[in-house]
TrEMBL record, chains A, B:
UniProt organism field: Thalassovita mediterranea
Protein name (record): Putative pterin-4-alpha-carbinolamine dehydratase
Enzyme class: lyase
Key word Protein biosynthesis present: no
Reaction(s) catalysed by this chain's protein: (4aS,6R)-4a-hydroxy-L-erythro-5,6,7,8-tetrahydrobiopterin = (6R)-L-erythro-6,7-dihydrobiopterin + H2O
Lineage of source species: Bacteria, Pseudomonadati, Pseudomonadota, Alphaproteobacteria, Rhodobacterales
Keywords annotated in UniProt: Lyase
Gene3D superfamilies: Transcriptional coactivator/pterin dehydratase (3.30.1360.20)
Length: 98, 98
C-alpha cells in the first residue's frame, strides 16, 4: 500500500479528492486542504477524531491549526510522495465532517 | 490583560520564557517554540491538554504538528502583538511537560 500512486491510482483515488476541495501542493507531491469550523472547539474536535484514525493507520498528517481553521497536508514520507494511504486518510477526514 | 506587553512586562514575563527555549518570531511580535515528543500520541496528548487551557482562557495558539513535533506560535491578535495572555499560555504549555 505504501508505494507512490500510479497513474491509474491518481485517476481513481486522487481525482475525486481534488473535486472535493483537496489541492496539490505547489512544492511537493502532496495534497492539502483547509477546513474551516465554527470555532476552536469544533476545529480541535475534528483534529482529535482524525488523530485517532491517523494513529490507528500509522499514517499521520502535517497540520496547522489557527483558531477555527485546520490546514492539512498529506504525504507519505517513506516514498517521498502520495500513496494510497494519503487518499485513504483524506477520505476519512472528509467523512468525519458528514 | 489584553494589552501589548510593556517594557517592564517584557522583562518580567518574556525574559524567563526566552531562557526556557521560546524565541521571538522573526516577522511578528510573537513567540515560538518547537516541542519534540517520543511519538505522535505523546505530541497529540500535549496538544489536547494545551487545547483545554487555550479554550478555558479563550486564547488560542497557532500550532503545527508533524508526527512527534509541535511548533507553537503565540500572539494576541486583538492587540497585534504579545500580551500577558501569551506569556501565561506559554508558561502553561511548559508546565504540562513537567
Amino acid at each position: 500500500m505504501t508505494e507512490l500512486l500510479s497513474d491509474t491510482g491518481r485517476k481513481t483515488m486522487l481525482a475525486p479528492l481534488l473535486e472535493a476541495g483537496w489541492t496539490l501542493d505547489a512544492d511537493r507531491d502532496a495534497i492539502c486542504k483547509t477546513y474551516v469550523f465554527d470555532d476552536f472547539t469544533a476545529a480541535f474536535a475534528f483534529m482529535t477524531r482524525a488523530a485517532l484514525w491517523a494513529e490507528k493507520w500509522n499514517h499521520h498528517p502535517e497540520w496547522t491549526n489557527s483558531y477555527r481553521k485546520v490546514h492539512v497536508t498529506l504525504i507519505t514520507h517513506d516514498v517521498g510522495g502520495l500513496s494510497a494511504l494519503d487518499a485513504k486518510l483524506a477520505r476519512k477526514m472528509d467523512q468525519l465532517l458528514t
